[in-house]
Amino acid sequence: MNMKTLSASWLGQGIVLLAMAGLLSACGGGGHHGAAPVVNANPTGYYDITGKASVMDDATDKISVPINDLQGMVYNNHLYMLSMAAGLSYEGPMTVSGTGYSANVTIYSKGVMVKTASVVGTITAGTSITGTLAGTGSGNGIFTLNYAANNAEQSTLVIAGHGVTAWSGKFNGGVTNTDIPIDGTTGSMTISTSGLNKGIFSSCTLAGTISPIIGMHLYTINITSTGCFLDPAAEGTYTGLASTRMLTLKDDTLVVMLFNATYGIAGEAQ
Question: Is the pLDDT of residue 148 over 70?
Fold first, then answer.
């Protein structure tokens, strides 16, 4: 083969290779891939009482009130928060996108719905949730929730049953204790109304069930309120979450947050 013939052969092979490269490129070859799918952070869990917030005072909407006892729960893309000291509780659906989220929450002051607010923030899975509550009036501002160390512990009816005694503690800003007896076998429970603030529930009967969520340190609660002749708006179904945390001994504090969009029952008991 002479040099002219050899050069022509190489040129022909080069043209073929270039054509193949163009075809691969057009078909998405050559090692190029689409963007990786967004992985959403998982905020599910109990967030203990070490959370903090700075929210506006309801009376003036100009004074920032510090909160140092904020705790929360997240399950099934629903956010719950509570400050016993401020008498504020929050609940509402959330939408997670990557490490960010948005939510629309209803704000309750001592168990009474006062307004709604939008929330945007960031999730650091297994560590914290931060957020900004947008709007005016009671409860708006910024907050941080801290993921509890005992989230790995499975919730059980034995723990919820609290031995042979009822849980008893402050709810809705009341000064008298509210008692919550729970059957550690069936999960049936009642909530006394004597300690609930403002007398909204004083004529009601509150009874329902608590159920452990498998694989989590959380419980679902469904309570039916009946016989509320002093305030018929307090009747109906209240749903929410509960968890336990350690005060002095393991699982010796029950945290409960229940709502029906008009009223709430939120607090903790030992």
Answer: yes
> Beta-carbon neighbour count of residue 76 at 10 Å?
11
Question: pTM of the full predicted structure?
Answer: 0.84
The listed CATH number (2.40.160, 2.60.40, 2.30.30, 1.10.287) that belongs to domain 45-150: 2.40.160
CA distance to 45, 100, 101, 251, 266, per residue, from 148 (Å): 8, 20, 20, 12, 19
Q: Please name every residue paired with 107 in a beta bridge, in sequence order, or none if there are none.
A: 90, 115
Nearest CA to 237 among 253, 250, 226? Answer: 226
Read out DSSP for the chain? --HHHHHHHHHHHHHHHHHHHHHHHHTT-TT--PPPPPPPP---EEEEEEEEEEEE-TTTS-SEEEEEEEEEEEETTEEEEEETTTTEEEEEEEEEETTEEEEEEEEEETTEEEEEEEEEEEEETTTEEEEEEESSSTT-EEEEEEE-GGGGSPP-HHHHHTTTS-EEEEETT-SSPEEE-B-TTT-EEEE-STTSGGGTTTT-EEEEEEEEPTTSS-EEEEEEEE---S-GGG-EEEEEEEEEE-SSSTT-EEEEEEE-SSBEEEEEE-
- Kindly report, residue by residue over 57-66, the tens digit of the pLDDT: 655 555 678 9
